[in-house]
Amino acid sequence: MFRIIYGDDRASAAKAVESLLGANYEVFEGEDLTLGDLPSIFRGLSLFGAEKRKILLKNLGENAAAWEKVIDYADTEHDVVIWEGKIDKRSVGYKRLKAAGVEFKEFAETQAPEARMVFQVFDTAWTDGARAVKMLEKIEEKQDPYMFFGLIVTQAMKKFEGRQGRKEVAVLKELAKVDMELKTTSFEAWLIVKSFLIRLSSI
């Protein structure tokens, strides 16, 4: 089975290729391949003398004929990564690959969160953490969790200006705790942020 990576964050995608294939691997430009080339790539012997080949196929989606047929080689014994810039989810090739359960991994450029959107999530979490998490899940894929949390802290400071009641003090302490957790633990950052949003209404 091979894996497919894609997206506009090419630096992260390149790191993924290195992690999956190591330093030494064969590279094929998908646009230049014919259907007759596929058996030798997926079934052929290694150029480096090893039994198992490491192969990077680039931009195969630009070659419609090969893209449609590549699923026929999903049982290859070699380590194969297909690296695409963009994926046409309307294509026959994509639909065949998804139906067969081939793994797709997207690497999207993160965007700086819009302050208004972050403030809406924070204000919602003040009374309904579960709803705030659902709002966040619609946008998190292309956001940076650390920048997002930083804007939450900014919003809290503005919201609490001149107000130092029990809840405000408790929330500020919780924010400090979450900030430290983001900096020092190995837990997935978005899970930490979501957990805070869920807890906020009951603090």
Descriptive overview:
The chain has 203 residues and is of the alpha/beta class. It is 48% helix and 11% strand. It has helices spanning 10-21, 38-43, 64-69, 92-99, 115-125, 129-137, 145-159, 166-184, 189-200; strands at residues 3-6, 26-29, 54-58, 79-84, 103-106. A five-stranded parallel β-sheet has the order 2-3-4-1-5, with helices on one face. Helix 5 (115-125) packs antiparallel against helix 6 and helix 5 (115-125) crosses helix 7 (145-159). The radius of gyration is 23 Å and the shape is elongated. It starts with a strand and ends with a helix. The model has no long low-confidence stretch (mean pLDDT 89).
What is the straight-line distance between the termini?
48 Å
Instruction: Give the averaged pLDDT, no decimals.
Output: 89
- From the helix content, strand content and strand pairing, which structural class follows? alpha/beta
Major sheet: 5 strands, parallel
Coarse morphology: elongated
Low-confidence region ranges: none
Q: Write the element-wise H/E pattern from the N-terminal end onward.
A: EHEHEHEHEHHHHH
Percent of residues in β-strands: 5-15%
Radius of gyration: 23 Å
Q: Total number of β-strand segments?
A: 5
The order of strands across the largest sheet is: 2-3-4-1-5
